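Ops channel
N.P.: pipeline sanity check, posting one input/output pair.
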């Protein structure tokens, strides 16, 4: 998903990257514990994904929150719609554990922690690899087992 330079920057400054989490746009986190992700949960995820068409997405520019440097997403409307449907289906699992109202900002995290305040991260030539485009045709369910992230399931968009 990310160009090689930006992926290398992300791997140096995102803890979960070291633990197997690929670059992604978070839709719900934290999600259910792995042993609670039973058939009904998977069926709900599949039905929600099927209601949303695949789309072309672009990572466009660098932006920052106080604790995150990220790549912005365009268009963000399909991502927001998908996230809203997931949040409505799983109200007991609020995004980032924060209660509503909470503004969801679609993004791909490139740096967190100390890297956010490092001026060299913001000036890294890897940012010049943006924009980059790709097709979003599925959502994936990642789980952490023994400190390692892995894809547990994949749900195709548009049925």
């Amino acid at each position: 998903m990310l160009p090689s330079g930006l992926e290398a920057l992300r791997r140096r400054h995102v803890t979960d990257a070291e633990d197997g989490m690929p670059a992604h746009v978070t839709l719900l986190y934290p999600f259910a514990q792995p042993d609670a992700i039973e058939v009904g949960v998977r069926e709900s995820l599949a039905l929600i994904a099927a209601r949303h068409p695949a789309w072309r997405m672009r990572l466009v520019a660098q932006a920052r929150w106080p604790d995150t440097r990220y790549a912005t997403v365009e268009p963000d409307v399909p991502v927001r719609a998908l996230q809203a449907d997931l949040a409505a289906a799983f109200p007991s699992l609020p995004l980032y554990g924060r209660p509503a109202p909470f503004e969801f900002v679609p993004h791909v995290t490139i740096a967190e922690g100390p890297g956010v305040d490092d001026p060299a991260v913001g000036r890294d030539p890897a940012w010049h690899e943006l924009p980059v485009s790709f097709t979003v045709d599925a959502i994936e369910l990642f789980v952490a087992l023994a400190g390692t992230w892995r894809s547990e399931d994949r749900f195709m968009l548009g049925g």
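N.P.: looks fine end to end. The mean pLDDT is 94.
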